[in-house]
Amino acid sequence: MNIFKKLATATALIICMAAPAFAAPSPKADSVVTHDQITLGDVFDGVTADADHYLAPAPELGKTITLGTYDLERISKAFNLGWIPDGGNESHVVIRRAADEIDHFAVQAALEKKLQEEMKGQRFEMELTDRSIGFHVPETADKGVTIEKLNYDAANSTFRAVVAAAAAPDARKEVSGHYYVINRIPVLKSPLIPGDVISANDVDYIDMRSSDITSSMVTEASDLVGQTPRRGINAMKPLTSSDIRLPVIVKKGDLVTMVLKNNSLSLTTQGRAMDSGAAGDAIRVMNSSSKLVVDAIITGSQTVSIKPPLGTL
Predict the structure, then answer these.
(1) Rounded distance, CA 67 to CA 34, Å?
(2) What pLDDT was estimated at residue 90?
(3) Euclidean distance between CA atoms 40 and 25, whole angstroms
(4) Dihedral of CA 233/238/244/246: which sign?
(5) Are 292 and 309 within 8 A, CB to CB?
(6) Which of 181, 187, 230, 304 could form a disulfide with 210 if both were Cys (CB 3.0 to 4.6 A apart)?
(7) Which residues is 248 bridged to in the sheet?
């Protein structure tokens, strides 16, 4: 009899050891939901029954909600999950609503496109007052931005608009900011020094806000070509009219041809330049014969025009 009892006990132990152990459900550390409600299976791992049971609304798109020890214990008791807190350790589950973000860059790009249409292709830069503006939409939703209203003030370079996510047209937001009209201005591709004559191949362009362009800046490439720097000029920097001049074509001490024209009469003689200058500059010239110094205008290479009385030649 004792032998049979021992055999039955051993058999029972073997059966217990062979039987699979079913662990009690446990809270998830983090949970991501793609729908608009939180279910039991979103909170606890290992739930076999009632996993789809509704517990609460899901947080807004892209937002989170945290369930603490107290919440988890109440849920466990309500569904007989058998989970109890581990001593004094705090437990929590962070539930996040899955979403894609439409950030302020996307909002700004949509506004820039709309404003370009309004301003007929004028180039500009835009700055939003609130750089945190954006939308969250479902991961599979359209990521486009709709501009429902756009008003701009050209005098103050400001704008106001109402924008919405294409996937959530009811979630409208107001946005405002500044825009800055952009113009291209000519610059030098590489540094040049006095005496270098600027050619069309030396010219490049940079973008500048029109509000930063002063009246003294050179804004046309034609105003650069044929000029020479008054001093060394750096590359890719805005230039002013005081940075350039016509090349010097008569140097102090050069022998020049002095030309006097009076109606149909044209007289020439030789002289020596007392100053250096470019075409159109006024310089002093000494008549090589009479040694008389007269005022003259440089008209070409080694050529000047004078208007003294005829007897001075």
Answers:
(1) 18
(2) 86
(3) 11
(4) positive
(5) no
(6) 181
(7) 278
